[in-house]
Amino acid sequence: MGLIAFIIIGALVGWIASSIMGRDNGLIMNLLIGVVGSFLGSFVSRLVLGYDDSYLAFDWSAFIWSLIGAVILLGIVGAISGRKPRTAA
């Protein structure tokens, strides 16, 4: 996957995860959340499935595992920092 596609997908995954977790992050933080979430999702995928063969090209399972990893990452960071999600007013 090209670098530009990696950045766009990482930012998209970070933005969706932030929305799910009720966080309000900027573009750069969403990108970092998406990239780190991809690595974490790959690790979780290997633990759950015993393998991870979706790391070379885009496919929907890689996207979902990246999203799961990003949500886990935001949950861990929120638990450590004690930060509460924003509420809709």
Describe what is shown at a glance.
The chain has 89 residues and is mainly α. Helices cover 72% and strands 0% of the residues. The protein has helices at 3-21, 27-49, 60-81.
Number of domains: 1
Question: Number of helix segments?
Answer: 3
Give the SSE string: HHH
Point out poorly predicted stretches.
none
Strand tally is 0
**CA(first)-CA(last) distance:** 40 Å
Mean of all residue-level pLDDT scores: 80
Which range does the strand content fall in?
under 5%
Structural class, judged by helices and strands? mainly alpha
Topology:
Blueprint: H1 3-21, H2 27-49, H3 60-81
Helix pairs in contact: 1-2, 1-3, 2-3
Please tell me about this protein's structure.
This protein is an all-alpha fold. The chain has one domain. The protein is 72% helix and 0% strand. It contains three helices and no strands. The protein has helices at residues 3-21, 27-49, 60-81. α1 (3-21) packs across α3 (60-81) and α2 (27-49) packs across α3. The protein starts with a helix and ends in an 8-residue tail after the last helix. The mean pLDDT is 80.
